[in-house]
Design brief:
FAD/NAD(P)-binding domain; Nuclear Transport Factor 2, Chain: A; monooxygenase activity; flavin adenine dinucleotide binding; 7-stranded mixed beta sheet; monooxygenase; alpha/beta; Putative indole-3-pyruvate monooxygenase; 30 strands; Auxin_biosynth/cation_transpt
C-alpha cells in the first residue's frame, strides 16, 4: 500500500497547559535561545519533530526523534553556522481539547551556498517534561525568509520592470523564468519573482485572468474560508465579500492582483513546442498568440496548470449511443436552465457532484446564515427528479467544522503571511492530526448528521481523515455546504452500491438488473486515463513530506499546484530556490549536481540584479548570463515585460500537458514525469525514485 500519514513519525502530545499558567513568568525566550545555541539533546523530547524550509538542511525536510534532531542540527550547523538567535514572547497554543504547547518565535542568520546569508525565522514548541516542572522541546520549525540584501519574496515593493521595447518585430525572447498557467499558482509565483526582481513571463492560454474559475460550472465556489484564499502580499478580497467566494469574485481578485502588482502575463498564448535545451541548460518554447509565433528561451520552466481535471474525460459506459437523452461531463456543465421537466442523474458523490446538484435544484446561498443553503421547491426548479449514483462510501466534512478551525488562524486580526508561518511550517502529520482530532469530537456530537444520510441509502465514510484525502487522493470527498440536507430530506435520491452496466434508451441499467430512467446524465468522476496520470506530486516520503513538494522534478523544471493556501506558501520557496540558482549557488537538492554546484559553474549574477536595489538599471546588467560555457541569456533579457504588441501587463497558460507514467510498484516516491512535447535531453527529466 502507498505510504500514508499513519506510517510516518509524529503524534500530538497528550498535554493540556493549565489556563492558570503565567507564561510570562517563565523565561521561555531564554530557554529557546540557549537551546538553539547549545543543543545537547537532553532538552529535546523523544517524540520531537523538526521541520525545515531550506535554511538549515537546504531542503524541505522533517526529522524526528531527539537523537536524529541533535545529530543533524550539529552536522548542518558546521556549514550553515546558525547564529544571532533572538527569541520573542512566548504564547500558548491550544489546537485541540487534549493537546497544547508553548510556542516561542525566533529569528536568526545562517550561511547558505556560495557566501549567501539567509535571514531565517522559526518557532520552538515546549511541553512539560514531567513532575519536575521542567520543559522539553517537542517541535522545532525553521524557515528561510530571504537572502540578506537580495530582496524579500514577501515584499512586493519595488517591483522590477524590464525596460520596455518595441516588440512589433521581436520574435525571440530570453527570460530567466517562464511560467505556464496564470491561475492561482502561476500568479503567486509571478508575484514572488517580481518581488525578488527576477524577470519572468507568465503564459495563459485563455483570454482573461480567472477563467480557471469562471470557466467552470456556475455554482463553483471555494470550499475554504475567504481569509485562507489571499494571493501573496496582502488581502485579495474585501471584508464584505462572501465567506465562501464564488468564481466571479475569485476571478476579480485575480484580475486586480495582476494590475496592482504589474504581473507580466501574456493572455491568449499557447505553447506549441517545448524543448529541453541541454547546450544552454534551459528550455526553448514555441508560443503561438493568434497568428503570431514567438520563441521564448528560458532558464527555468515552471508548470502551474493544475491537475488537468477540467479536461472533460467521462468514464466510458457501454451502449452510450443508444441513450436518447443528454450526456455530459462536469467539465462541460454550466447550469440546468435548459433542463426543465427532465429527470436528472449525477454519476459521482464528491464535491463536483454535490455542487452540480446545487444547480439542478436551483439552490442559492443564504445571505443571513453561515454556510447554509436554501433549496427552492422541486417544481420551481424545473426538474421532475434527481438521483445521485454513489459508487462507494463518501467522506463528508461539514463546512462549519472546517471554518471553525480555519478561522482561528486565518482572520482579519492576523496578516496572512503571519498565519502561514504558524500553520504552514508545522509538520504535515501534526496539522493532519489536529484536524482529525477536532473532527472526531464533532462527529461524535453530531452523529445524527450522518445517520440521516445513511437512512436514505447514502453511504458515509466516517473514518476518513480530511488531510489524507486532500494530500494523498486529491479529491473524492465533499465539504458539505448544504447539499447533504437535501439528500437526507429525500429531495435528492440516492442509488448506491450498484455499478452501472450500460446505457439504455431511457436511462441507465445497473449490474443488479435495475433500470433508472433519465433525460440528463452528468458524470462528475474522471476516466481511467486521467486517474492514472495523477501520481507525480501525490504521496508521502518516509519523513511525511509530499513527494516533490516545492522541489524541482528535473533540471530547471518545476511543478506548482494546489489550492490558494498551497499556492501562496509553496511559491515563495520555489522562487527562493530559483533565485539561488540564478546567483550560481543552487541548493544541494535542486538536481543541479553535487554540493550545490551547477554544471559549468555559471558565475553569480550581480547583487544589484537579484535584490530590491532601486539603482538597478540596464547599465548595471551584464552583457551575457553565462551558462555552461555559453552566453545563454542576457540579463535583463531583451524582451518586453508586456505581451507582444500589447500595451499593458497581461496574463497566459498553455496547452502543454504533463503525462505521468504510473510505476508498477505502488509505493514509489515519484513517478517519471514526461512532457507531452519534444524533450531534447534525457537528463532534463526527473528519474524515478526507488522505494
Amino acid at each position: 500500500m502507498p505510504r500514508g500519514f499513519d506510517d510516518v513519525p509524529g503524534s500530538l502530545p497528550c498535554v493540556q497547559i493549565s489556563s492558570s499558567l503565567d507564561v510570562g513568568s517563565i523565561p521561555f525566550p531564554d530557554l529557546a535561545e540557549h537551546a538553539l545555541n547549545h543543543l545537547s539533546g537532553s532538552e529535546i523530547d523523544s517524540t520531537a519533530l523538526w521541520r525545515d524550509h531550506l535554511c538549515i538542511t537546504g531542503q524541505i525536510k522533517t526529522l524526528s526523534g531527539a537523537r536524529a534532531i541533535k545529530e543533524r542540527w550539529a552536522s548542518y550547523s558546521q556549514e550553515r553556522l546558525p547564529r544571532n538567535f533572538k527569541a520573542t514572547k512566548a504564547r500558548v497554543s491550544r489546537p485541540t481539547a487534549e493537546s497544547s504547547w508553548i510556542d516561542v518565535p525566533f529569528t536568526f542568520l545562517a550561511n547558505l551556498n556560495g557566501g549567501l546569508v539567509g535571514n531565517c525565522s522559526g518557532i520552538m514548541s515546549f511541553i512539560p517534561s514531567g513532575a519536575g516542572g521542567g520543559w522539553k522541546i517537542w517541535m522545532l520549525r525553521t524557515m528561510l525568509e530571504n537572502f540578506e540584501g537580495y530582496g524579500h519574496p514577501d515584499d512586493p515593493s519595488p517591483i522590477f520592470q524590464t525596460p520596455k521595447a518595441d516588440t512589433a518585430n521581436q520574435l525571440e525572447h530570453r527570460v530567466p523564468v517562464l511560467i505556464i498557467g496564470a491561475g492561482q499558482c502561476g500568479l503567486s509565483l509571478a508575484g514572488r519573482l517580481g518581488a525578488l526582481s527576477i524577470p519572468y513571463i507568465l503564459l495563459e492560454k485563455e483570454e482573461e485572468i480567472g477563467y480557471s474559475w469562471t470557466g467552470k460550472y456556475d455554482s463553483v465556489r471555494q470550499h475554504t474560508i475567504r481569509e485562507m484564499n489571499n494571493l501573496p502580499f496582502d488581502r485579495t478580497y474585501k471584508d464584505s465579500d462572501p465567506e465562501l467566494l464564488p468564481a466571479k469574485i475569485v476571478a476579480e481578485g485575480f484580475q486586480n492582483y495582476v494590475v496592482k502588482y504589474r504581473i507580466n502575463a501574456w493572455l491568449g498564448s499557447e505553447v506549441e513546442k517545448c524543448v529541453a535545451n541541454n547546450e544552454e541548460l534551459g528550455w526553448i518554447v514555441n508560443v503561438r498568440k493568434g497568428s503570431d509565433q514567438y520563441v521564448i528561451r528560458a532558464r527555468h520552466l515552471v508548470l502551474t496548470m493544475g491537475a488537468g481535471l477540467s479536461v472533460p474525460n467521462p468514464p466510458k459506459i457501454p451502449n452510450a449511443s443508444s441513450f436518447k437523452g443528454i450526456v455530459l461531463h462536469i467539465g462541460n456543465f454550466k447550469n440546468s436552465s435548459s433542463w426543465k421537466g427532465k429527470k436528472g442523474v449525477v454519476v459521482g458523490s464528491a464535491t463536483a457532484a454535490h455542487d452540480g446538484l446545487f444547480l439542478l435544484l436551483k439552490i442559492v446561498l443564504s445571505a443571513d446564515s453561515e454556510f447554509q443553503t436554501v433549496a427552492q421547491d422541486m417544481l420551481d426548479s424545473g426538474l421532475s427528479s434527481i438521483t445521485m449514483i454513489q459508487r462507494g462510501k463518501t467522506p463528508i466534512f461539514p463546512m462549519e467544522w472546517c471554518a471553525s478551525g480555519q478561522s482561528k488562524l486565518y482572520n482579519l486580526n492576523i496578516p496572512p503571511h503571519i498565519a502561514d508561518r504558524t500553520g504552514s511550517t508545522q509538520p504535515l502529520k501534526i496539522s493532519r492530526d489536529v484536524i482529525n482530532s477536532n473532527f472526531k469530537v464533532a462527529a461524535e456530537i453530531e452523529k445524527e448528521r450522518f445517520d440521516a444520510l445513511e437512512r436514505v441509502g447514502f453511504r458515509v465514510d466516517r473514518d476518513a481523515v480530511l488531510n489524507d484525502w486532500i494530500f494523498l487522493r486529491g479529491g473524492g470527498y465533499y465539504i458539505d455546504v448544504g447539499t447533504s440536507k437535501r439528500i437526507a430530506s429525500g429531495e435528492i435520491k440516492v442509488k448506491s452500491g450498484d455499478s452501472i452496466k450500460q446505457f439504455t434508451e431511457d436511462g441507465l441499467e445497473f449490474e443488479s438488473g435495475e433500470k433508472l430512467d433519465a433525460d440528463v446524465v452528468a458524470a462528475t468522476i474522471v476516466g481511467p486515463e486521467v486517474a492514472k496520470s495523477m501520481r507525480a506530486s501525490r504521496g508521502l516520503d518516509k519523513e511525511g513530506e509530499i513527494d516533490g513538494n516545492m522541489l524541482p522534478v528535473g533540471k530547471a523544471l518545476w511543478l506548482l499546484g494546489g489550492a490558494l493556501p498551497q499556492a501562496r506558501w509553496n511559491s515563495r520557496f520555489i522562487a527562493l530556490q530559483i533565485q539561488a540558482e540564478l546567483a550560481g549557488t543552487p541548493f544541494p537538492d535542486s538536481l543541479w549536481g553535487t554540493n550545490g554546484k551547477a554544471p559549468g559553474n555559471p558565475p553569480k549574477l550581480p547583487r544589484s540584479l537579484l535584490g530590491s536595489d532601486p539603482r538597478r538599471t540596464q547599465e548595471h546588467a551584464p552583457k551575457g548570463y553565462h551558462n555552461a560555457g555559453t552566453a545563454a541569456f542576457t540579463y535583463p533579457p531583451p524582451l518586453p515585460m508586456t505581451a507582444p504588441a500589447m500595451g499593458g501587463p497581461i496574463n497566459t497558460p498553455t496547452e502543454l500537458q504533463i503525462i505521468v507514467i504510473p510505476s508498477p510498484a505502488p509505493n514509489l516516491d515519484m513517478s517519471t514525469v514526461v512532457l507531452a512535447c519534444e524533450a531534447g535531453g534525457k537528463d532534463m527529466i526527473a528519474p524515478e525514485k526507488k522505494p
